[in-house]
């Protein structure tokens, strides 16, 4: 689809009063008052300089639920995309004539957290140079910036411990029958594992990419274990053959499940001190791998007693037969389930897909079949920038610290 373009025909707006209906303008805001003053002033740049120098945050937050995205610099056309816009959509910023200022205003929830970037002249991707937060590599938007509204709170477990108490990452080789490619399974071992003989519960994390660099799972677990979470082993299950949708959701899902339960689980039980029972095992994953975690758990409830999903890919094909995929809760042993998704989760409005909406549908199906779960919708986006903010809730649900 790289060569497809779209032109949208919209009504022409000619009267200033009609700005109430123009996306990206909030006429009643303080920022809009500034824009009107700038447009009427012969010293436009001076007014802009004075205003921006007086701001403590970028994007500019006004009140509890209003945000103004601001770009200042060269560019005939400046657009924005991000969690709040959707993939493969570029939202034009408004240009203040006679200046180098571009802006877009909108309302967001008071605790929302958003990933975004700008594009200049349709080709050049830019992080927000006014935003002091470090940029990062996002799941959907490449190199990007992020910000949060006033009531959002950063987790307290994402900074490395300074007392020297850390788990470690073990690596073991793994081979798939009739496949010459070598694979490695990474395993997080909790603090104290090497000094004792205790056995530990295991969380199998499917399809995880960059769990340490972006997800900060090792740092998070170092902080959470012993404080809010039971000491636990985490196994990062690599792609076993096909990868993507076909491996986890579509025609190879049973093959993946069988390789996982027949080869990976016994291997981990053999090489590490695990609690080799359903009460000591849980599956976790996101998007396609979230379905793989669900499928393994619900088809082999004799092996797994816990499930955690952050952003579920629950498409129309599986939903059409949901009663087969989701037996009634009364027919299975008890399951500990955590499920969350973002209001601004991975979606492409032009293509009609929305993983926040599909996750919510999956949640509804679970409830229809009698299951309870922790979590729910959050005012956040997608990818590790969102998921890692709730690592504590995931592991507290699966293996809480016992009193």
Q: Remind me, CATH topology of the largest domain? A: Rossmann fold
Shape: elongated
Helical content stands at 10-25%
User: CATH first level of the largest domain: which class?
Assistant: Alpha Beta
Strand order in the sheet with the most strands: 11-12-14-13-15-16-17-20
Structural domain tally: 2
**What CATH architecture label of the largest domain applies?**
3-Layer(aba) Sandwich
Through-space gap between termini: 55 Å
**Count of distinct strands:** 20
Integer-rounded radius of gyration: 24 Å
**Uncertain spans:** 15-19
Indicate the structural class. alpha+beta
CATH homology-level superfamily of the largest domain:
Alpha/Beta hydrolase fold, catalytic domain
Largest sheet: 8 strands, mixed
Q: How large is the count of helical segments?
A: 11
């Amino acid at each position: 689809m790289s060569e497809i373009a779209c032109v949208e025909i919209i009504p022409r707006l000619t009267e200033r009063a009609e700005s109430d209906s123009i996306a990206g303008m909030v006429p009643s805001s303080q920022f809009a008052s500034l824009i009107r003053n700038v447009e009427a002033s012969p010293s436009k740049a001076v007014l802009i300089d004075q205003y921006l120098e007086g701001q403590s945050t970028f994007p500019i937050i006004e009140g509890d639920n209003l945000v103004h995205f601001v770009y200042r610099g060269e560019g005939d056309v400046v657009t924005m995309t991000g969690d709040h816009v959707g993939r493969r959509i570029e939202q034009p910023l408004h240009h203040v004539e006679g200046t180098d200022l571009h802006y877009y205003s909108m309302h967001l929830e008071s605790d929302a957290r958003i990933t975004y970037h700008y594009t200049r002249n349709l080709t050049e991707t830019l992080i927000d140079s006014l935003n002091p937060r470090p940029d990062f590599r996002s799941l959907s938007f490449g190199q990007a910036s992020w910000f949060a509204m006033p009531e959002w709170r950063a987790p307290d477990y994402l900074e490395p411990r300074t007392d020297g108490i850390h788990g470690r990452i073990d690596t073991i080789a793994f081979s798939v029958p009739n496949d010459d490619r070598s694979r490695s399974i990474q395993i997080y071992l909790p603090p104290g594992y090497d000094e004792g003989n205790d056995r530990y519960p295991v969380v199998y994390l499917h399809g995880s990419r960059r769990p340490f660099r972006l997800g900060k799972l090792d740092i998070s677990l170092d902080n959470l274990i012993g404080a809010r979470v039971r000491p636990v082993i985490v196994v990062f299950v690599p792609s076993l053959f096909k990868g993507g949708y076909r491996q986890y959701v579509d025609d190879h899902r049973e093959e993946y499940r069988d390789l996982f339960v027949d080869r990976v689980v016994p291997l981990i039980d053999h090489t590490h001190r695990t609690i080799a029972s359903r009460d000591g095992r849980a599956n976790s994953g996101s998007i396609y791998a979230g379905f793989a975690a669900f499928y393994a758990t619900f088809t082999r409830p004799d092996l797994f007693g816990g499930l955690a999903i952050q952003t579920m890919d629950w498409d129309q094909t599986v939903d059409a037969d949901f009663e087969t995929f989701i037996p009634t809760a009364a027919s299975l042993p008890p399951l500990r389930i955590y499920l969350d998704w973002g209001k601004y989760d991975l979606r492409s409005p032009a293509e009609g897909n929305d993983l926040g909406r599909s996750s919510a549908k999956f949640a509804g199906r679970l409830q229809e079949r009698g299951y309870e779960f922790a979590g729910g919708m959050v005012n956040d986006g997608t990818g590790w920038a969102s998921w890692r903010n709730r690592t504590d809730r995931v592991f507290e649900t699966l293996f809480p610290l016992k009193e």
